[in-house]
Amino acid sequence: MFERLSRVFLCVFVTLLALETLQVPVGPLDVRLHQGALIGLLAWFIGRGVYLLKTSQASLRPAMSQSLREYALLLLIFVVFAGIGGILHTSLAPTLTQTLVFLSMALTFFVIIYSIRSHQRMRIVLASLMVGTVLNIGFALYQALAFKFGLLDFMVFEGRVNGLLPEPNWFAIWHSGIVALLLPMTFFIPHWFARKWQSLWWLLLFLNLVVIILSLTRASWLALFVTGIVFYGILLWPAKYAPSTVLKHAGKISMLLIGAVVLIELFSLTKFSLYERAESIISHTTTHYETRDGESMSKEEAKERDDIVTKKVKDVNVASRMEDYRTSLSIASEYPLFGVGFAGYKERVGETRNTSNLFLGALVAGGFPGLIAFTLLIYRQIRDSIQYIRQKHLMVGTMMLNVTLVISISGMFNNGMLLAFIWMFLGLTAAFSFLPRQKKEKPENYSSK
């Protein structure tokens, strides 16, 4: 019974984490739904731990115990330096509040690792991730279709048709993480699921690409581009798969990507030009429409006028991020040892601002010791994934590496240090390395060089 209860809490927790990306508060205290499931899961762990200690059955595999201690030490260093910095250089109340929030993020990280101790548990978590993803996709497409048919009164976030959400970056990072998992799951035959599920993974991959494109976010597009290159590069070398096998899979992904773009353009699911957005990502500029008298207007309004002047102006998002980077480095140079805590940046710059960079966020919060500790945590996950790849456990190794790359690259543009789903993905990546090793996976129509 207790084992079943833990599975229920685990499924609910992981599924509801997807809804965190919607940034919808529940109640006046801004409580997120997944937090209740986390409390239930934690209560079960405490109860089980007390029972095992009383019956002298508590044990962890030596390798797992050592790895958990290493992760715990890195996070402890981070939170101690950030906590001291916050107490010394920032107001006490927000410092304590935000430090407690970060501790709940660390708790999410360890709960995910400890929950996934077998391949059966990994299957449960991956299935729950996909269920949460379907809920997110359904919401995004509902928003897009409501906008398309002019049903603005039925939109949850009226008029948001670029990212569909108040913060499209978080939404896109979640779905980029899911694509990072699905790339190896569609190339190999996952031993967690029957072969009949392959068609579903391809469908989910397509729908994820649709909503990621709809988000129009620079971070997710770049993260997936780099991740895809690394993934196929590993398959060709050092994995040495036949180029025809790799190109066949890459061709399917390309067709899905083209299909997603065609679907969005065909049904006009966004008022923004995908071409102009892609161009702005490369050039860091946006197209500005105005009359000869200087009156600004949208692209749709400009189509009906013949006195329009088109200008290329610097992307306001790029300018804002650059300002955040400069401010972060300035604060870090002033407080290099302890930082200013998790609340220090907002107190100095404004509640609506953040460092716009995950690693700069670690630097500002915990000084250089905090940055080193957080970077070592990411490095450890990359190192473990490479070790798996070298040992020919390619599906698990590439899943670990893909997810870590997505979080790290998207983290260059956004600071999600205090978002539970970010730590869930990091915990999931760490948990892969604790699973019992399986035989090498082979893709369909496999042929080696």
Helices, strands, pairings?
Blueprint: H1 2-20, H2 33-54, H3 62-89, H4 92-115, H5 119-148, H6 168-187, H7 198-215, H8 218-236, H9 243-266, H10 274-283, E1 285-291, E2 296-297, H11 299-303, E3 308-314, H12 316-334, H13 344-349, H14 358-390, H15 394-410, H16 420-432
Antiparallel strand pairs: 1-2, 1-3
Helix pairs in contact: 1-2, 1-5, 3-4, 3-14, 4-16, 5-6, 5-7, 6-7, 6-8, 6-15, 7-9, 8-15, 12-14, 14-15, 15-16
In short:
The protein has helices at 2-20, 33-54, 62-89, 92-115, 119-148, 168-187, 198-215, 218-236, 243-266, 274-283, 299-303, 316-334, 344-349, 358-390, 394-410, 420-432; strands at residues 285-291, 296-297, 308-314. The chain has 449 residues and is mainly alpha-helical.
Strand order of the largest sheet: 2-1-3
Number of helices: 16
> What structural class do helix, strand and pairing data support?
mainly alpha
The biggest sheet amounts to:
3 strands, antiparallel
Q: Give unreliable regions as ranges.
A: 25-31, 50-58, 445-449
Taking all Cα atoms into account, the compactness measure Rg is 23 Å
Count of folded domains: 1
- Give the beta-strand count: 3
H-E order = HHHHHHHHHHEEHEHHHHH
What does this structure look like?
The chain is mostly helical and 449 residues long. The protein has one domain (66-273, 319-432). The protein has 16 helices and 3 strands. The chain has a 3-stranded antiparallel beta sheet with strand order 2-1-3. Strand 1 (285-291) and strand 2 (296-297) form a beta hairpin. Helix 4 runs parallel beside helix 16 and helix 6 packs parallel to helix 8 (218-236). The longest helix has 33 residues, at 358-390.
